[in-house]
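Structure tokens please, single chain.
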Amino acid sequence: MKYEVETQKGAVKAVFTLTDAEWQDELTASYNRTKGKYNVPGFRKGHATRKMIEAMYGAGVFFDDAFDSAFRRCYREFLSKETEVRPVDEPQVDFVPTEKGISFSATVTVKPEVVLGAYKGMKVGKVAYNVTDADVEHEIEHAVERASREVSVERAVENGDKVTLDYSGSIDGVKFDGGTAQNQQLVIGSNTFIPGFEEQMIGMNKGEEKDLSVKFPDDYHAKDMAGKNAVFHVKVHDITVKEKPAVDDAFAKEVSEFDTLEAYRKSIREKLEKQNKDRADRENENALLEEIVKNVTVDIPECMIRDELEYMLRDFEYRIQSMYGGMKLADYFKYTGTTEEDFKKQRRESALNTVKLRLSLEAIIKAENLEVTDADTDALIKEIAESRGQDFETYKKEVSEREMPYIKSDALMKKVVDFLKANNTFVLKEKEEEKKPAKKTAGETAKKTTGGTAKKKTTKKAEDANA
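Here you go.
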């Protein structure tokens, strides 16, 4: 077998030629592989000669199988020799006329050439999120709410109380559908019921019954009741209030593993600081990568966008099944009034950016000769193990040979991102008020007009900080 290579825009075309002897060997091999499938009168299956089978089923009976085998072998050998050819799609195969033997071409779309722009020595805007005392107190308020309990009170209803009641509504003395209920709970002041209902319950006591006169809003959803006067007969069964615990050491000990409120507050601040740091790190990293991708020039083939959209669709399908008890993707599209085509159209730009980012990172890895070491993979395996609450050594033993290439790929991506963060500078973004020019004083204006000198007012910029 011999081949010739022709480079095209975004593709490579290889023309393969097999001699007549090589092609006959392929046909013979196909006969030996498949002869057991054919029935020939007078012969047991698998014992008929090649000529007998060809005479009965046609001269080309072994052609397709022989060609498939020849193509796979030739294409595999071609890729092993031409290591710079990196296909991103299935090849398009065409036959080439030849007098003897057989000749065919395989045209395959290849990874596009990436022209890198600036990716080192840049200054990128940096965000930072600080934790305030108010943030800490907000978290404590949530804990207080969770630790609060409902207690009955022996007094008249007040605004903010939770009331257990029966009610029965009527219009012109006739009860209406949905206007009657028993043992319903209502927080007075929540504006859950129609206007005037909750206000008239203030001052009622346990066991008390009362008629409340109200008017349905003109825009009420039930058109037959909109704007009409109604009477609700109500009876109060219970009045409760939310009893909040005192925020002290005892409270901290009850809701956390800490013995003092001070230690509890400190732990909340540390948790929020970590969350804010993780959030800022993600946003800063994304900003850096977006800036790098802006400087990249590459023509992305449609097949790569198509494949990324397919991956996104399969990932979405998996999440839909997990979230909604095994719901099928087709049913989701039906219920939401959308289609697979809508999904891909909406996410096309995202798929394009994802492919462009991946190609950019691969180009940087090549340009910088970055390689994954055992220490890199161990660090990532340890990170995964810790996130799953498992021991590193135990989890590492469980990692299969099939999983390792994916772990190495992820470790390489992490390495290139860390490289980029270390070789670029993050500059803390100025606040809006810092960007506004300072107003000149009357004295400064006068000095400028008369040619006098005045000290220039400057605003101290935030210091540069590496990621």
